[in-house]
Amino acid sequence: MNEAIIVEQIGRQGLIDLAAAFYKQVPNDSILGPMYPLHDMDGAEERFRDYLLMRIAGEEDYTIKRGHPRLRGRHMPFKIDSAARDRWMEIMENAMTATHVPLESANELRDFFAQLADFMRNTPG
Ligand code: HEM
Q1: pTM, whole model, 2 decimals?
Q2: At how many degrees (to 10) do helices 11-25 and 41-57 cross?
Q3: Which atom of ligand 1 sits closest to the CA of residue 92?
């Protein structure tokens, strides 16, 4: 992933907006909604936002609060099959559209998200 292009085009505020636009859709989603902690959506959004700011903009809050991401392990409590992966990618695509992520950054982010989302699968189907 070319982090520099993303930072240049959308900046940290763009990543914050992207996380918000993603999480806004989660509670009403038929597949993802039931997996997320509806009583703590602000916390979930904060964890994801901090992760993006760490991974893409080199900020330290995520690491200070959560340590090593261990993303595959942290997703094990949830049954993630290809339908869940595809839905995650779909609402992320909506979030990129809603926040007007420019083409080059969207291409970078989409490849990065697609690889990780596939890696997170832990349930057949
Ligand atoms: C493949 C479909 C995916 C599903 C169904 C899914 C679902 C979830 C759920 C239910 C949580 C718990 C919410 C919370 O309380 O924080 C979570 C956390 C998280 N997810 Fe995902 N996720 C997926 C893919 C991804 C991808 C592709 C990324 C990275 C780009 C990601 C990054 C994170 C992060 C950073 C957290 C918080 C980890 C922590 O506890 O520190 N997820 N995800």
Answers
A1: 0.97
A2: 150
A3: 27
Beta carbons within 8 Å of 90's beta carbon, 6+ residues apart: none
In 3-state terms, the chain is what percent helix, strand and coil (to 5)? Answer: 70, 0, 30
- Give pLDDT tens digits for 43-93: 999 999 999 999 999 999 999 999 999 999 999 999 999 999 999 999 999
- To the question of domain 3-119 being in CATH 1.10.490.10, the answer is yes
Measured from the Cα of 31, ligand 1's closest atom is 5
Q: State the burial class of residue 39 (Cβ atoms within 10 Å of its Cβ: 0-12, 13-18, 19+).
A: exposed
Return the residue whose CA atom lies nearest to atom 14 of ligand 1: 44
Q: What is the pLDDT of residues 37-50, one digit of tens each?
A: 999 999 999 999 99
**Ligand 1 pocket residues where CB is under 6 Å:** 32, 35-37, 44, 47-48, 51, 66, 69, 71, 74-75, 78, 80, 84-85, 88, 113, 116-117, 120
- DSSP state, 68? S
